């Protein structure tokens, strides 16, 4: 079967061009569009990430019936850390976490951490401090679950699916990336926060 090349224009269906004929977007327009799109993507990711932490705080505080059952919230006398830390069954800090489980200071630090990180990322302010706090929290939770272990201390399978990369690591990387990218400036209070005198003098508060 021969394939013939024709010099005449093909008259089949074509999608209409979104641009005016003979014009192309300027390099500056393309760059500005890409920058704006990136800012919106980071802002959306920031809001979702902040809501993860803020929701965890609300659920554990009021017992909304998701991870924390109704009537078992912090305000009802429940402990936000007792169940998780008391259930640690692998890793080098197993006994340490058991000792911390249910301690008032551990409950307060954990809950204030969730609230502070959640509010910071939802509002878009103090992302650097929140990222440091969030990374420390994720590191401790990673150690508590100890993904490298194939077996728990009682010999049963740990059900770990990856010896290193789990969701705690992903959350930590996302927190750091959002802080570095200055994601609070879009759909947030980041710009107004940065203009405050004490923040301008102490850039680590951004």
In short:
With 206 residues, the protein is an all-alpha fold. Helices cover 54% and strands 0% of the residues.
Supply the key terms.
206 residues; mainly alpha; 54% helix; 0% strand; disordered N terminus
Topology:
Layout: H1 27-62, H2 82-86, H3 94-100, H4 104-123, H5 127-145, H6 167-180, H7 190-195, H8 197-201
Helix pairs in contact: 1-4, 1-6, 4-5, 5-6
- Helix-strand pattern: HHHHHHHH
Radius of gyration based on Cα positions: 25 Å
Please estimate the helix content.
Answer: 40-55%
**How many β-strand stretches?**
0
N-end to C-end Cα span? 68 Å
Gross morphology is: globular
Uncertain parts: 1-13, 15-22
DSSP strand content: under 5%
**Helix vs. strand class:** mainly alpha
Mean of pLDDT: 90
Largest sheet: none
How does this structure look, described?
It is a single chain. The chain is mainly α. The chain contains eight helices and no strands. The termini are far apart. Mean pLDDT is about 90; it is low at about 1-15 and about 15-20.
């Amino acid at each position: 079967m021969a394939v013939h090349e024709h010099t005449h224009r093909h008259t089949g269906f074509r999608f209409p061009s979104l641009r005016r004929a003979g014009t192309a977007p300027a390099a500056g327009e393309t760059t500005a569009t890409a920058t704006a799109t990136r800012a919106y993507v980071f802002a959306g990711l920031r809001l979702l990430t902040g809501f993860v932490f803020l929701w965890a705080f609300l659920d554990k505080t009021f017992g909304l019936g998701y991870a924390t059952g109704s009537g078992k919230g912090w305000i009802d006398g429940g402990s936000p850390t007792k169940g998780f830390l008391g259930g640690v069954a692998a890793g080098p800090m197993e006994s340490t976490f058991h000792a911390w489980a249910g301690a008032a200071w551990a409950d307060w630090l954990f809950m204030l951490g969730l609230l502070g990180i959640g509010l910071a990322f939802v509002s878009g302010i103090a992302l650097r401090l929140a990222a440091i706090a969030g990374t420390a929290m994720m590191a401790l939770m990673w150690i508590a679950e100890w993904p490298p272990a194939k077996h728990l201390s009682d010999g049963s399978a740990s059900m770990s699916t990856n010896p290193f990369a789990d969701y705690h690591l992903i959350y930590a990387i996302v927190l750091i990336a959002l802080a570095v990218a200055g994601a609070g400036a879009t759909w947030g209070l980041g710009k107004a926060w940065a203009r405050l005198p004490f923040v301008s003098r102490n850039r680590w508060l951004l």
